[in-house]
Design goal:
The complex is a heterodimer of chains A (about 140) and B (about 500). Chain A has about 140 residues and is mainly alpha-helical. Chain A has six helices and two strands; from the N terminus they run H-H-H-H-H-E-E-H. Chain A has one domain. A two-stranded antiparallel sheet of chain B has the order 1-2. The mean pLDDT of chain B is about 90. The chains are: A mainly alpha (about 140), B mainly alpha (about 500).
Chain lengths: ~140, ~500
C-alpha cells in the first residue's frame, strides 16, 4: 500500500507514539498504565510504520530482531526478582535504590519498575514478531 | 529457604530465554536445553528432600503474605509431580535432540518446550486458584504452538479442535473462579477451603465444583469431554506427543485431585460420586475406542483417556487408600505412557509408519526394542510384578473396601481390554511376519541406534525400579494421601495458623 497521506502522517505520528508509550510505562507505577499497555503502544507505532512503508523498513528502523527484544525483556523481568534475595527477602520482593540527582533530590529506582521495563520489551517483541511475520507472508 | 520453592519456575524460564537468544545455533540450544532439564531434575530432588518428611514448603512471592499475595505451596504430591517433570524433561530433551527434524528445532522447539515445563511446574506448586489459571494459560499457549509446529495438514486439523476445546475449558474455569471470588472474596486455595468449611453456601459451591469438574475434565480428557484428545495427540512428532501425554492431561488430573481434596471436600457423596461415575465411563470409553484402532500411535493416544479413568477412580472413591493408589498410578502411568510413545516414535523412525497392517516382524529385526516395548506394555496392562499391577491392585482393594462393586468390575474389565490392545500391538508390530518387507527408511549405525534408545532404556529402568521399590513408594504415597485427606495441615502451613 502506498498512500502518501498515510506515509506523511506516519512520519509525524511515529515520535509522539513512541514518546507516549514510554510515558505510559513510567506512569504505570502509581497510575493506570505500565509495561503492558506501553509495550502495546510502542508496538503499534512500529506496526503503523510497517503498514505505511513496508516490513523491511520497519525492521531496519527497529534495528534488533523482535524475538531478541522479547528474550531480553524476559531476562530483565527475571533478573529484577533477584536483588531481593541478597537482602534475604523472598523472590520478587520490591527493592529500592535511591539515586541522587543533585540539589538534594533523589530518584527512586525500584525493582518493580525494572520488572515493568522487561514487560514492555516482551510485549513489544512478541507483538512485532507477530505483525512482521504476518506482514511478510505476501 | 527463600529461593528453592520458586526455582522450578525460574530455571526453565532462564533456559528458555537463553535458548531464544541463541536461536541461530542448534548445538548451543541443545546443550542449554539438556543442561536446563538436568537442573530442573536436580531442583526437584532438592525440593523432595525438603518435603519428604511431610513438611509443606510455603513461599509468598514478593513477600506479600497469604491470602493477599500469591502463595506457592509444595506438599508431597506436588514434589512428586516435580520429580516426574524433571525426569520427563531430561528424557524427552535427549530424545528430541536426536529425533526431531531441524526445521522444527529452528522454529523454537526448545524454548517452547521449556516454557511448557515452566507452566506445568507452576501449576504443580501454586497455592492460588487464579495463579493456577495463569499457569494453565502459559502451558496451553506453549502447547498450541508445539502442536501446530511444522504445519502439516493433520497437525493443523488436530490443533484447531485442541485450541477450541481448551479455550472453552479455560472460559469455564475462569467463570468458576469469578463466582468463587464474588462468593468468598479470596482465591487463595487454603483460605477458600477455610471459608467453605464454615458452610452456609451449599448450592453455589456445588455449582462451581461442577464447573471445575467440566473445566479440568476437558483438560484431562474425562468422559464425555475427551474427543479432542484422539484427534490431536497422534499428529505431532513423537517427542511432542510423549511430552503432552506425560504432562498436559496429568496437570488436569492433578488440579482435580488438588481442588477436590482441599476445597470441595465437604460434599463427597454427590461430587465425588459424580467423579466416580465419570471415571468408570472414561475408562470404558477410552479402552473401547482403542480396541478398534489400527495405528500404534492412535491406540496409545486413545488409551490415555482410559488411564485417566483409573486416576479419577482413586479420587472418586475418596479414601486414603484410594488416593494412595491414584498417586502411585499417576507416577506409574506418566513414565510408562511417555515411554510407549517414545517407542512408537522409534518404530516410526525405523520403518516410516505406525500402521499396524503394514508393520511386522520387528521382533526379529530389533529384539532390544521389542523387549523394551513388552516391558512397558505389560506394565500398562497391570501384569504382576510390574509397576501397573500394584497401583491397580490398590485401587481395586479400596473399591472393594467401600463396596463399590460396579467400579471394581469396570476397572477389572478395562484392565483386560488394555491387555488386549497391548497384545494387539505386540502381535501386529513385533510378532507377525511383515506382510511385505519394509526397508528401513532411516539407516542408523549401531552407535547412533544405542544413543537413540538411551532415553527409552532410561524410562524402562525407572519402570522396573518402581516395581522393585514398590514398598518405599507406597509408604511415600500413603503419607502424601494422608496429607491430602487432612487439608487442615495444608491450610495451617499456608495461612500460618491465622484463622
Amino acid at each position: 500500500m502506498t498512500s502518501i497521506i498515510l506515509r506523511t502522517a506516519t512520519l509525524y505520528m511515529f515520535p509522539p507514539l513512541i514518546l507516549f508509550s514510554v510515558y505510559l510505562l513510567l506512569r504505570g507505577h502509581h497510575y493506570p498504565g505500565g509495561g503492558f499497555v506501553g509495550g502495546l503502544m510502542g508496538g503499534a507505532a512500529f506496526a503503523l510504520y510497517s503498514l505505511a512503508f513496508n516490513v523491511a523498513a520497519a525492521r531496519k528502523l527497529l534495528r534488533f530482531d523482535p524475538r531478541d527484544i522479547a528474550a531480553v525483556g524476559l531476562a530483565i523481568s527475571l533478573l529484577s526478582g533477584l536483588p531481593a534475595l541478597f537482602s534475604g527477602e523472598v523472590f520478587l520482593t520490591g527493592t529500592w535504590w535511591k539515586i541522587p540527582l543533585g540539589n538534594g533530590n533523589y530518584f527512586d529506582l525500584g525493582t518493580p519498575f525494572i520488572f515493568d521495563i522487561g514487560v514492555y520489551l516482551v510485549v513489544l517483541g512478541v507483538l512485532l514478531t507477530l505483525v512482521f511475520s504476518l506482514g511478510e507472508e505476501e | 529457604m527463600t529461593l528453592l520453592p520458586v526455582l522450578p519456575i525460574i530455571v526453565p524460564l532462564a533456559g528458555a530465554v537463553l535458548c531464544m537468544l541463541t536461536r541461530k545455533s542448534l548445538l548451543l540450544q541443545k546443550i542449554i536445553a539438556m543442561a536446563t532439564s538436568f537442573i530442573i531434575l536436580l531442583v526437584s530432588i532438592l525440593i523432595m528432600l525438603e518435603t519428604k518428611d511431610g513438611t509443606i514448603a510455603v513461599m509468598s512471592v514478593g513477600g506479600w503474605k497469604a491470602p493477599f499475595g500469591i502463595t506457592l505451596a509444595i506438599d508431597m504430591l506436588s514434589s512428586m509431580m516435580l520429580i516426574l517433570v524433571g525426569l520427563l524433561a531430561v528424557g524427552i530433551t535427549a530424545y528430541s535432540c536426536q529425533d526431531l527434524d531441524e526445521e522444527r528445532m529452528r522454529f523454537g522447539f526448545f524454548p517452547l518446550m521449556l516454557i511448557l515445563l515452566m507452566g506445568v511446574n507452576g501449576a504443580f506448586i501454586t497455592g492460588d486458584l487464579f495463579n493456577l489459571y495463569v499457569w494453565f494459560e502459559v502451558l496451553l499457549t506453549a502447547s498450541f504452538i508445539l502442536l501446530a509446529l511444522g504445519g502439516e495438514r493433520p497437525q493443523l486439523e488436530g490443533s484447531i479442535k485442541y485450541v477450541t476445546l481448551n479455550l472453552l475449558s479455560s472460559a469455564l474455569f475462569l467463570a468458576g473462579i469469578g463466582i468463587f471470588y464474588g462468593m468468598a472474596g479470596t482465591l487463595n486455595m487454603a483460605e477458600l477451603a477455610h471459608v467453605i468449611q464454615q458452610g452456609e453456601r451449599g448450592g453455589l459451591v456445588t455449582m462451581v465444583a461442577v464447573m471445575f469438574i467440566m473445566a479440568f475434565g476437558i483438560k484431562c480428557g474425562m468422559f464425555p469431554l475427551y474427543f479432542w484428545l484422539p484427534a490431536s495427540y497422534p499428529t505431532p512428532p513423537a517427542a511432542v506427543t510423549a511430552l503432552f501425554s506425560g504432562l498436559l492431561t496429568k496437570v488436569g488430573v492433578y488440579s482435580l485431585i488438588r481442588v477436590f481434596t482441599l476445597i470441595f471436600s465437604t460434599d463427597p457423596e454427590f461430587l465425588h460420586g459424580l467423579i466416580l461415575v465419570g471415571a468408570s465411563l472414561t475408562m470404558l470409553s477410552g479402552v473401547l475406542a482403542a480396541a478398534c484402532q489400527y495405528d500404534m500411535r492412535k491406540i496409545l493416544a486413545v488409551h490415555i483417556v482410559s488411564q485417566i479413568g483409573y486416576i479419577l477412580m482413586g479420587l472418586g472413591l475418596f479414601t486414603r487408600l484410594a488416593l494412595t493408589g491414584a498417586i502411585v498410578y499417576l507416577m506409574h502411568v506418566i513414565i510408562v505412557k511417555t515411554n510407549l510413545f517414545l517407542i512408537a516414535g522409534a518404530v516410526k523412525r525405523i520403518k516410516g509408519t505406525t500402521d499396524l497392517h503394514k508393520l511386522g516382524g520387528l521382533y526379529k529385526e530389533r529384539p532390544g526394542l521389542s523387549i523394551l516395548f513388552i516391558l512397558s506394555a505389560m506394565s500398562l496392562a497391570g501384569i504382576p510384578p510390574l509397576s501397573g499391577f500394584f497401583a491397580k491392585l490398590t485401587l481395586i482393594i479400596s473399591g472393594l473396601q467401600v463396596e463399590s462393586w460396579w467400579i471394581v468390575v469396570t476397572a477389572l474389565g478395562v484392565s483386560l481390554l488394555t491387555l488386549y490392545s497391548m497384545t494387539k500391538i505386540w502381535a501386529y508390530v513385533f510378532w507377525k511376519p511383515a506382510p511385505e518387507p519394509l526397508p528401513d527408511v532411516n539407516p542408523m549405525s549401531q552407535g547412533q541406534w544405542m544413543l537413540f534408545l538411551l532415553p527409552i532404556i532410561g524410562f524402562s529402568v525407572i519402570i522396573v525400579a518402581i516395581s522393585v521399590f514398590a514398598g518405599p513408594i507406597f509408604e511415600f504415597a500413603d503419607v502424601a494421601a494422608g496429607q491430602l485427606m487432612n487439608p487442615q495441615g495444608y491450610m495451617d502451613a499456608v495461612l500460618g495458623g491465622r484463622q
